[in-house]
Design goal:
disordered N terminus, 43% helix
Length: 684
């Protein structure tokens, strides 16, 4: 489910910055939400939801100290805000009230681009132009300076241009360096800075076309090609467990990564942004990603989108909108801090009650307190019953309580296919445990009764009236023609001979088969099991479906007849139409079985349904080819030629219909416009 379709999401997100405006010149300030908040439903569509975060304050300076070209920020657990004030070559420290606490590194730093603060208040600064990492203590005293790693594995020709930095509890530094495509630089503080290697290297993008071109190209041609090298991460952060998060432009669904200790990505986001700028780990096993344009994405630990909000400022200086985001962080109260490098300000957002409840539920759920998580989830659903993530979490909570029936209902509401499958598996197991013995007894009794009836029929001919009725029914011509469809399915060559030479089919029987096919198709499409359904609940396109079947069958028959006529084919319209409709017999026969299985099987057995579909379509295709060959008395070569010409003719017919439709639509609009003009002039 994961992967519906997603480029439409970005189009919807581009419309997100529409709403009230609020402008203020006094700092710090508060404001209402100037943007809409979105989430994704279970089908992968962007939908609007309650406001998740509201603008809380905006900081442009601490006391009288203004920011100049800031690049990064870090918020400590006690609420201190550390900002890499790049233009002023310092680290400025303040609080949420705009009070200045201290400055660090003045006279020592050159162009600080990244800042990180450990739990013991050691401040690490990534200074690009100084080509070094600076470590300060809590008072701002310089403790260490780490330059370019003196290790050939780093790369002798590579410069050391640190941009962003995080440090784990062991003091190991993870550094993003400009233009270093080898990955994140990992440095130990031992012996003045020991290079440990590269971490979380991105993969070079490639595709079969590029590979073939490089294989065929000469050395000179390859030298002129654009180098296929990995992307350099744009930013990173670290969570409480020591896992590293990175964001990288141009990686699409790998834009956001969560790297384990082996450097392997363990998160699969369901959306991405083209120009990510920063990432921050939340307090509830969640993660935030900010785009340069000011859109903020919140994901859970599995990469599922919770919220998308914010947006780009159009120049009206609205609070809550940004122009060039360079950093994001979260404090202990779940407030978000967004650093806007262009405006030289920090936007602060606070969570709403809706978001607080969801975070509370997340916290309880991921700590294994499933029953307790239901209460805040219920409150979330009272506010927004269509918030699919809450329905999904509620279903998972009921599943952990072994209340599988309710879990399955919530999973269905949330379009949580995995959760629905797991609950259905458990329900089926319980049903089998309760009913397996009675089922065996029913089977045994049925077999005994069958033997008994067979014995009595031999002795007393008790089934003779049924056999007589069956023979009379089979003697009816229409019934015989319909029965012939199953003979056609099993013996297509003889079946085609019967249609073409013996008149074993009629328009009436063929039309009945088409009606049966259409009914089965729509029933299977709209009423199949939840795991097999490919359309949204409550969406019905019955007339479109009927029209599609009729148009395709008519177009196929007409085009094939026209092609066969000019290629010495022996088929008439009746023979071709009847043979094509009889080719639908495998679908008519086996799709009811698929329909029943779709309500019984879980994801673990989905291969059975896939196999059934492959069997149906392959069988139908073989019947179709044989029908064209045998009805028209063609050779294999002639059949292939006619099939290609038929496909081409259908394409041309579709193109003509489309052109006629467009022209007629324009004529219709022209007539409407003239009519409107006439009415307007008469009225005046």
């Amino acid at each position: 489910m994961k992967k519906m379709k997603k480029h439409f999401q970005k189009i919807a997100l581009s419309l997100a910055v529409l709403a009230v405006t609020f402008v203020s010149c006094v700092m710090p300030v508060s404001a209402d939400s100037p943007y809409k908040t979105y989430t994704f439903d279970g089908y992968g569509y962007t939908i609007q939801t309650q406001t998740a975060y509201l603008p809380y304050e905006t900081l442009t300076k601490f006391d009288e100290e203004s920011l100049s070209g800031p690049s990064d920020l870090h918020v400590t657990d006690d609420g201190e805000i550390y900002v890499a004030d790049t233009g002023n070559a310092r680290i400025i420290v303040g609080d949420i009230e705009g009070n200045l606490i201290k400055t660090i590194g003045e006279g020592e730093l050159v162009t600080p681009k990244g800042v990180f603060v450990t739990k013991d208040k050691h401040v690490y600064v990534a200074d690009r132009d100084a080509q070094a990492i600076f470590e300060f203590d809590a008072d701002g005293t310089l403790l260490n300076k780490y330059g370019k790693p003196d290790n050939p594995l780093y790369g002798e020709t590579l410069d050391f241009l640190p941009l962003k930095i995080v440090v784990n509890d062991a003091g190991i530094m993870f550094v993003v360096c400009e233009s270093n495509t080898n990955g994140i630089v990992e440095i130990s503080p031992i012996e003045g800075g020991t290079f440990l290697g590269y971490f979380g290297t991105n993969l070079a993008s490639s595709n079969p076309l590029i590979i073939i071109r490089r294989m065929l190209a000469t050395d000179a041609q390859r030298a002129k090609m654009v180098s296929n090298i990995p992307s350099t991460p744009d930013n990173l952060c670290i969570d409480e467990q020591g896992l590293i998060y990175t964001v990288t432009r141009g990686e699409e669904y790998d834009t956001l990564k969560r790297l384990n200790i082996a450097g392997k990505n363990v998160i699969e986001p369901d959306t991405y942004d083209d120009i990510p700028a920063a990432v921050a780990a939340g307090n509830h096993d969640n993660v935030f990603m900010a785009s340069q344009e000011g859109y903020i994405y919140e994901f859970n630990s599995e990469g599922e989108s919770l919220y998308i909000f914010g947006g780009a400022d159009d120049g009206s200086q609205r609070v809550g909108l940004c122009t060039l985001v360079s950093a994001i962080d979260v404090d202990a109260q779940d407030r978000l801090y967004i650093l806007d490098a262009d405006k030289c300000q920090i936007q602060i957002f606070e969570p709403t009650e809706f978001t607080d409840l969801l975070h509370q539920a997340l916290n309880l759920y991921y700590t294994g307190r499933y029953t307790e998580s239901k209460e805040p989830l219920e409150e979330v659903l009272k506010m927004n019953s269509m918030f699919d993530y809450a329905n999904k979490a509620m279903g998972r909570a009921y599943f952990q309580e072994e209340n599988y029936e309710v879990a399955r209902e919530y999973a269905k509401l949330a379009k949580d296919y995995d959760g629905y499958s797991d609950a259905s598996w458990e329900i089926r197991n319980l049903w089998l445990k309760n009913w397996i013995v009675p089922i065996i007894w029913v089977v045994v009794i049925f077999m005994v009764l069958k033997k008994l009836v067979s014995y009595l029929d031999k002795k007393k001919q008790i089934l003779k009236p049924l056999r007589t009725a069956k023979e009379k029914l089979g003697s009816i011509r229409l019934i015989d023609e319909l029965k012939y469809a199953w003979y056609f399915m099993k013996h297509p060559i003889d079946g085609c001979y019967g249609i073409a030479r013996e008149g074993r089919a009629s328009f009436r029987a063929a039309n009945i088969l088409v009606v049966i096919f259409t009914i089965e198709y729509m029933i299977n499409k709209y009423l199949c099991g939840f795991l097999q359904k490919t359309i949204r609940e409550g969406r019905y396109e019955i007339f479109t479906d009927i029209g599609m079947v009729v148009i395709v069958l008519i177009a196929l028959t007409a085009c094939n007849y026209l092609v066969c006529t000019i290629n010495d084919g022996e088929g008439t319209v009746k023979k071709i139409y009847c043979s094509f409709t009889y080719c639908l017999t495998p679908y008519i026969t086996f799709i009811p079985v698929v329909f029943v299985l779709s309500h019984v099987l879980t994801y673990n057995e989905q291969f059975l349904i896939t196999f059934m579909y492959c069997l149906i379509y392959a069988w139908t295709a073989v019947l179709f080819v044989l029908a064209v060959k045998e009805v028209n008395n063609y050779t294999a070569k002639e059949t292939f030629k006619v099939l290609c010409l038929t496909a081409f003719t259908i394409l041309i017919m579709a193109l003509l219909i489309f052109i006629i439709y467009v022209l007629w639509a324009q004529v219709f609009e022209f007539i409407i416009a003239i009519g409107g003009e006439v009415v307007y002039r008469i009225g005046n």
